[in-house]
Amino acid sequence: MRGWIVPDWPAPANVRALITTRAGGVSRGPHATMNLAAHVNDDPAAVAENRRLLRAHLPAEPLWLSQVHGVRVVCAEQSAEGIEADAAFSRRPGVVCAVLTADCLPVLLCDEAGTVVGAAHAGWRGLAAGVIEAAVRAMNAPPEKLLAFLGPAIGPRAFEVGAEVREAFVPLSDDAAAAFAARDNGKWLADLYLLARQRLNALGVARVFGGGWCTFTEAERFYSFRRERVTGRMASLVWMGP
Fold first, then answer.
1. Average pLDDT over residues 130-148
2. Which CATH class is domain 15-155+208-240?
């Protein structure tokens, strides 16, 4: 689909990934056009049509999670749509792991042998609580054998946070302070991409790709909850082929 993102990472040939943007759907108003979330007061018929359009590019319907900014990870092939979790993994070809975001960071994962894939929803709360660590643990593969791709999130020049966010990270890691830049108003600019890279590297996941977008400032391309409040959600998806 024109306008969507195909992750550029050295994943094995049987691993496929796709990230949607605002483009290509039928939703109107603040949800225009490719909103894939059923919980944001969009027209249910439009959401269903958007999911149908996405499904044409996938081997199966994704496992749609009920995301709560937590650390629960589920096995996609053993879970039902709407299960409360913020990450999923699969070892079965044709099973699609997905997370929805509109500023939070989507993290896609796979192993170098193409035997397991995963997707995590990593906003600052999930990052601080350990959702990436939980996803890597659940995939049960040596971290040095894993690859990660960071999808579109709010960028480090736009993500202004209070001191409580910085304090959620800095006591846990000496490196985390480098991900926060002080502002004159007593607040901080936070770099979700750097925080995620630090967490992945600390686990032993050295091959981390992607990043560099800003959902807040790239308004024509991405949804942003912080920018618009009432808005849609994009999907980041990963699965294994035959």
1. 98
2. alpha beta
